[in-house]
Design a protein that fits this description.
The structure holds two protein chains of two kinds. Chain A is built from five helices and four strands, in the order H-H-E-E-E-H-H-H-E. By secondary structure, chain A is α+β, with helices and mostly antiparallel strands. Chain A has a single domain, classed as Sufe protein. Chain: A (Alpha-Beta Complex), CATH 3.90.1010. Chain A has a four-stranded mixed β-sheet, with helices on one face. The longest helix of chain A is centred in the middle third of the chain and has 15 residues, at 83-97. Chain A starts with a helix and ends with a strand. By secondary structure, chain B is α/β, with parallel strands linked by helices. Chain B folds into two domains: 9-32 and 313-422, Alpha-Beta Complex (Aspartate Aminotransferase, domain 1); 56-310, Type I PLP-dependent aspartate aminotransferase-like (Major domain) (Aspartate Aminotransferase, domain 2). Chain B has helices spanning 3-14, 21-25, 53-66, 76-96, 110-120, 122-125, 144-153, 170-176, 199-207, 228-231, 256-261, 296-312, 314-333, 360-369, 382-388, 404-422; strands at residues 34-35, 38-39, 41-42, 104-107, 131-135, 156-160, 181-187, 213-216, 235-239, 250-254, 272-275, 280-282, 338-341, 350-355, 372-373, 375-377, 393-397. In chain B, a hairpin with an 8-residue loop joins strand 13 (338-341) and strand 14 (350-355). In chain B, helix 3 (53-66) packs antiparallel against helix 12 (296-312). The longest helix of chain B has 21 residues, at 76-96. Chain B starts with a helix and ends with a helix. Classes of the chains: A alpha+beta, B alpha/beta. The A-B interface holds A 1-5, 7-8, 10, 13-14, 17, 38-42, 62-66, 122, 124-125, 128 and B 36-37, 357-362, 365-366, 369, 376-378, 385, 391-392, 420-421, 424. Bound molecules: pyridoxal-5'-phosphate. Pyridoxal-5'-phosphate (PLP) is lined by residues 46, 109-111, 139, 141-142, 187, 191, 216, 218-219, 239, 380 of chain B.
Chain lengths: 150, 424
């Protein structure tokens, strides 16, 4: 049984109403735009990289509670991490929201991101939770194009 | 079921036409489905309507005792199948009050009907510098086919603006019409806003310039009585699945003289009268536009849906739904922080809304937990969302089998949405 209480946890609602790092990043070395045509969510992710480390990261856009909170918490989780750590965290996060067991060798501690575990009961919302992460991934890969969840 | 008799009483009292909604609901098996352990409250009828048992039975009977290919066999079953399919065409002719069955073309749905006209009428008769007029509240299927045509022939798309209530600005429409205008294509009833447009007036104004008009009837046919001769529209397209019939079948009505002048849309079997490598002669109407084996069971099922709807009566449906929509509009707009999108004076069946600071998608997820099925998003009408400055809306869309009690469940669900988002 799924339950909206599991989905809309307090931390998620807090990050939705008061998104952290919600701004354009001056001097960003990377950025990319993401779009979810299903619900019209739009996000732009900015990152400043130095020596393979995410020195600063921010986002802008409009979206549902899940996509906004996910973007906000992504930025707070990634500041100061290496690129390799960032990718590993995305992989773990992805397994979490799609309900796959996280036993892979590259497994990292999800910390606060664990509140998104409820998403796995709502498959249609996985795209909302991962939009910002996919967008960041594109920015780091320098794909430069708009990422679409479709 | 202790509440059901009181409900029936209430249903009877609610409606002066004597429309008994509880009895009608018995005809729709899917309405008994439970969602997340709760009774299904299906308020996504504008996306697709549910099917009465008689439609389901007609389709399965067709496959059990009639199935065969049509228009080509001399054996018993082929004649049976052909008769069933052509009977359905005749029912549709009466349903639209068309003058001839040859004006009734089976297509896959509204989308295909509009594409057929854009290509078969547009390619030969619309040229560089000509203008095509649509409105600001069209479904993508009444925008994109015209944009494609414009690219192909160098014509221009002009858009009738709408006001803050979601009504067409008729004066602006008048200003758009000129000697370059070669086609007008507008929705009879808007899927995103519920607006019923003054289509008769729109057609009259276009005809003064000798311009043909297509009406997108995808949303209108399940809710309004349509008379193509009275409207004097040149083309009318609708989808079976929104009319309580099966998916994959729909109708394009066209005036015979226009259809005669148009080249075929698709080539293949059934649309020809003779083929040699030197020259092919096309079949007569409507078969000229019906290449290949069609959705025979779908057409027959659509005929059954029309019979069913006629049995209930579109007038009774319209009266009941009007009352239900007023009830829903009143109830939903009383919830603090809820804004209705689409408040035209002439409206049917659609209640689009946004909730302050809460994204439509979150509204949809929480309502789904309560068993309430609504649509959230842009409703294939992104320009409408842009016009109202919202990324998405939540849309409840009604059918005659919906009840006041279901509206109460919707309202309680929206209140729950607000609670979930309140205490942070
Ligand atoms: C107004 C309107 N036009 C056209 C369509 C397209 O219908 P179909 O997808 O059945 O071709 C729809 C369906 O949502 C609609 O609401």
């Amino acid at each position: 049984m799924s339950d909206v209480g599991q989905l809309y946890q307090e931390v998620i609602l807090d990050h939705y109403k008061r998104p952290r790092n919600f701004r354009k990043l001056d001097g960003a070395s990377r950025n990319a735009e993401g779009y979810n045509p299903l619900c019209g969510d739009k996000v732009t992710v900015y990152a400043k990289l130095e020596d393979g480390v995410v020195r600063d990261i921010s986002f802008q856009g409009s979206g549902c509670a899940i996509s906004t909170a996910s973007a906000s918490m992504m930025t707070t989780s990634l500041k100061g991490r290496t690129l390799a750590e960032a990718e590993a965290l995305f992989a773990s996060f992805h397994r979490l929201v799609t309900g796959q067991p996280d036993t892979a060798p590259g497994r990292v501690e999800l910390g606060k991101l664990a509140v998104f575990s409820g998403i796995s009961e709502f498959p249609i919302r996985v795209k909302c939770a991962t939009l910002a992460w996919h967008t960041l991934h594109a920015a780091l890969e320098r794909k430069g194009q708009t990422v679409s969840t479709e | 079921m202790t509440t059901s008799s009181t409900l029936t009483e209430k249903g009877r009292r609610d409606c002066l036409t004597g429309f008994d909604v509880e009895k009608v609901r018995e005809d729709f098996p899917i309405l008994k489905v439970k969602v997340h352990g709760k009774p299904l409250v299906y308020l996504d009828n504008a996306a697709t309507a549910q099917k009465p048992q008689v439609v389901i039975d007609t389709i399965s009977t067709y496959y059990m005792v009639e199935n065969s290919n049509i228009h080509r066999g001399i054996h018993f079953l082929s004649l049976q199948a052909t008769r069933a399919y052509e009977d359905a065409r005749d029912k549709i002719k009466h349903f639209l009050n068309a003058s001839h069955t040859r004006e009734i073309i089976f297509v896959r749905g509204t989308t295909e009907g509009i594409n057929l006209v854009a290509q078969s009428y547009g390619r030969p008769f619309i040229k560089e510098g000509d203008e095509i007029v649509i409105s600001a509240m069209e479904h993508h299927s009444n925008i994109v086919p015209w944009q494609m045509l414009c690219e192909q022939v160098g014509a221009k798309l002009r858009v009738i603006p709408i006001d803050d209530d979601g009504e067409l600005l008729i004066d602006e429409y008048g200003k758009l019409l000129n000697q370059r205008t070669k086609f007008v294509s507008v929705a009879h009833l808007s899927n995103a806003l519920g607006t019923i447009s003054p289509v008769k007036q729109i057609i009259e104004m276009a005809h003064r310039f000798g311009v043909p008009v297509l009406l997108d009837g995808a949303q209108a046919t399940p809710h309004l009585k349509v008379d193509v001769q009275d409207l004097d529209c040149d083309f009318y397209a609708f989808s079976g699945h929104k009319l309580f019939g099966p998916t994959g079948v729909g109708v394009l009505y066209g005036k015979a003289d226009l259809l005669e002048a148009m080249p075929p849309y698709h080539g293949g079997g059934d649309m020809i009268s003779s083929v040699t490598f030197e020259k092919t002669l096309y079949n007569v109407l409507p078969y000229k536009f019906e290449a290949g084996t069609p959705n025979i069971a779908g057409g027959v099922g659509l005929g059954a849906a029309i019979d069913y709807l006629n049995g209930i009566g579109l007038e009774a449906v319209a009266t009941y739904e009007h009352e239900l929509l007023s009830y829903a509009t009143e109830a939903v707009s009383q919830i603090p922080g809820v804004r209705l999108i689409g408040t035209a004076k002439q409206k049917a069946c659609v209640l689009s809304f946004v909730v302050d600071d809460i994204h439509a998608h979150d509204v949809g997820t929480i309502l789904d937990e309560e068993g309430v099925a609504i649509r959230t998003g842009h409703h294939c009408a992104m320009p409408v969302m842009q016009r109202f400055g919202v990324p998405a809306t939540a849309r409840a869309s009604l059918a005659f089998y919906n009840t006041r009690k279901e509206i109460d469940t919707l309202v309680a669900g929206i209140r729950k949405v607000k609670e979930v988002f309140a205490d942070v």
